[in-house]
Amino acid sequence: MNTLNKTLALIALASSSAAFAGTDFDTLDVDGNGAISQSEASVDAELMSKFAELDTDGNGELSKEEFSKA
């Protein structure tokens, strides 16, 4: 998926009420790669505030396991 499509998907996600619930991994994983990037997490302020703490392996993404500890 190119950058423009990712950006449009993030905008659509940010405008949806599901994005603000911030509890659904699959909804936040816009590109479907099995991880939540900082860009994808940016639609949820609470998740972003905990991102560094949750990213226990320091790879800049949250796995389902890391996300489940939110």
TrEMBL record:
Superkingdom of origin organism: Bacteria
Signal peptide: 1-21
SUPFAM superfamilies per record: EF-hand (SSF47473)
Pfam families: EF-hand_5
Keyword Signal: yes
Entry-linked PROSITE patterns: EF_HAND_1, EF_HAND_2
GO terms, molecular function: calcium ion binding
Keywords: Signal
Domain EF-hand: 42-70
Keyword Amino-acid biosynthesis: no
The name this protein goes by in its record: Calmodulin
Species this protein is from: Pseudoalteromonas prydzensis
